[in-house]
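Issue 218. Parser rejects a valid record. Input:
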Amino acid sequence: MNDFEVHASAGTEFPIQPLPQLEQVQLQSMLDWLSTYGADLQGGVTRLLYDQAWCKAQHALAKKMQEKGLTPAFDQSGNLYGTLNGNRTGAGMGKGIEEAPIVTGSHIDTVVHGGKYDGAYGVVAGVLALEYLKNHFGTPKRTLQVVSLCEEEGSRFPFAYWGSRSITGASGLEEVQHLKDQAGITFAQAICNAGFGPDSGHRTASHTYGAFIELHIEQGQVLERLGHSIGIVSDIVGQKRFSITVIGEANHAGTTPMAWRKDALAGAAEMITAVRSIALEAGEPLVATVGRVTAEPGVGNVVASRAVFSLDIRHIRQESIDRCWQDMLQAFSRIAAEQQLELNWEEHLSVTPIPMNEQITADIRSICEMEQLSYIHMPSGAGHDSQIFQPVCPTAMIFVPSRDGISHNPLEYTAEEDLMKGFRVLVQLLYKYGYGS
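Output the parser choked on:
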């Protein structure tokens, strides 16, 4: 679906400038409030899918949505929706049939010891934007909705974008229910313990959006270094994620000669070195990362019998991702053969590069010019839920600067002034699509 079929025409006016009482919107204070759910001793936030902190945060958000005049509801996956109902049915769609809502939002799960802005900013801004529009402009013509997606990071289970994948129908519970976290808890157990799943009584996750708009921190240095307030995302990189397993033979560290060893960890280390070399040779913008390594039996005086490492490959062109993976797999196989090791791999994620909707991005550009906000069109090097939504509904992303480009870290920070600039753009865009003729 490439054309943005929204009944707000191209000539629809935006709200009169300046937006009334915008300075009273307390974005930072609500972000600080949300960060108390999962606050850790390292100064960051840890909210993993279906854990206690995550559950408390989602339910607290549901209560907050209700307090702000929205209608909250969960689905079976644990995605939370706050709805501002419109008063118009779909033109040409039949009497009483509601138009698909215009939706904004992001995710509330975090990485371990993450920051308070990643994902949460888009959720909080969405809640406050709908409250602002309701208070100042009344009932919209078209239904507007904010979604607090249950999961995006893949930090607990080896599967990312569960929230958006379940909504779009890209994945179902049967595909992930067998996955286990590091404590051995299955996905099926975790979703049930959190009060969700097919027997929870909540509605099914899959449904239709009229459009999806995601406001997000950049998580990089481009906007800050170039001095721009807004990044209008042109496309989102594709990526592949793998678990690579190397199997050798456990043996005594003192009595086994080096040349006779089948050392799984030594083999994995050489493979990881090959990852860096191949990525550097491929050149920018390709990036490849090994972020997790485990070894068994994990004893200092025993040769490792098994080693597992993660692999993440990203690029804006699918052919470059595929070629890099094949080069790495060839190198891994060669190393395994040379050291008499067994090699296995499992692909956990494969997402193609995705361009954003041209009409919505053009409207974002018009808003930036009207608001006199400096902007650039830029790709996103990080994956986002927007790349899952774009194939099924018109989708766009708005970036605001990240200080020093730091993210997935307690030091993650965006100045309140920059948060508010992104908020202004979101409010104007939702007004156009929700209140326009």
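Fixed in the parser; the record now loads. The chain has two domains: 22-236+355-435, 238-351.
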